[in-house]
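for the writeup, i need someone to sanity check this before i put it in the appendix. the sequnce is what the collaborator sent (i think, or maybe the updated version? ugh). structure was predicted straight from it, no edits. if anything looks off just tell me and ill rerun, i have time this weekend
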Amino acid sequence: MRYGVAFLLPLFVASTFAKLNIQGQKPSAAEEFSAFGSGKGPKLPHNVRPHANFLNNKRGLSELCRKDHHVIEASGDLYTLGIQCGNISGSITFTNYEDSIIDFGEIENIGGSLIIEDSSSVVKIQGRKLKKVGGVFFIKNLTSLVAIELPELKYINAIEWKVVPILTNARLDGLVEGLTSITISDSSLATINGFQKVEELAIFDINNNRFLERINTNVKRVTKELRVHANAKELELELPELKSARNITIRDTSSIELPKLERVDNSLEFIENQVSQLFLSNLKTIGGTLGIMQNSQLSSLDFGNVTDVNGGLVIANNTNMEKIDFLQQLKQIGGAIYFEGKFQDTDFPQLKLVKGSAFIKSNSVVLDCNKWITPLNGRAIIRGGKLLCISGRKQKTQNISQDGKVLDESEAGSNEHSGKDNGKSKNGVLSKITSSSSSIFDNLNMVWIFGIAWALCLFQIFQLG
């Protein structure tokens, strides 16, 4: 028996050491990640970099990387995802993120959208390796965000940044490609450029960036909306390659450069700008309304090649505009005319047809309304029903049929002194105002007479009753 135990003892010891050796072997990187990912072990701290073997086994964990959607709430979640997946096929959403920095670390490609919202603690977004966002790069309600540092980001499908009130620095690759839409609203950015390889956008909307002083991009076509408004009053807008757009609305700028613009499919509006000049010499057609309104410094314009405005033509309250004569080749207006301001003259030598009505009102007595008035036996270019022209206190009205026949006309205001002066002297202006005022008072007296007579009739009726 003693010999038997002696014989079995080495075998037992060897077996025991063999088991200890197997249990003591270091697990593979895949096993370690399996433990972390399945909840069998503790989550990696975000500030602890794992062994390099973790990085060498990403390919074996492709199921996680192929998920349609990842929700990140803390930096540890993002770090763990980055270690496992350099390329992510789905989207990433950050919501109520509590850390101050979003660092994409080893992540290079995001196939879906990148959504970061409602995270008031975030101060900076960075990623030294991130090259692609296949969907929308969406940021909203990041009230503490100061900087975006993604210097290698070369491809984005769309940018939509809203309510980032202290964002002052956004650094992307200077030659970003793939963009179909850009919306930047409510930021503290001073310049927007770096989109020099973007040729076509559906939407280009830059608004409410109170310190924004310069926009420069080489976009050639905007297929839906181009809107620039409510930025710094000193904003310089430079779109040197833009050739066509569906709708354009530009407000609150100090200079506008659209030297190659040829076509606007719908409306074109310039409102409350501080520009002194507006040159669109290559523009030929406007598919909707052309509106130029409340541009207080605007005095020099060139729309010399525009032949058709298929909507209305609105030119109103441009204080320094003395003449409306910048549409020398305009042949047709598809809607109504609305002119109002201090202008002294209008000149449309090629205009043959206005399909809507016309309202023309100037505070200047120099304006000659006879340019727009058609003789009773003539054929009017206005076909929309009514022409009303007001020059100083003189008013002329014509009702016109759709085929251009003048149905009737009327004139208000006095012209009895017009033979003695040309309307330019102070006495001439004063006499016109006085005459018009007298006419107004006469009308008021008649109203009073009728009113008193009606009151007396009512009184007698009550007395009889």
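The chain has a mean pLDDT of 82. The CA atoms of residues 86 and 107 lie 4 Å apart.
thx in advance!!
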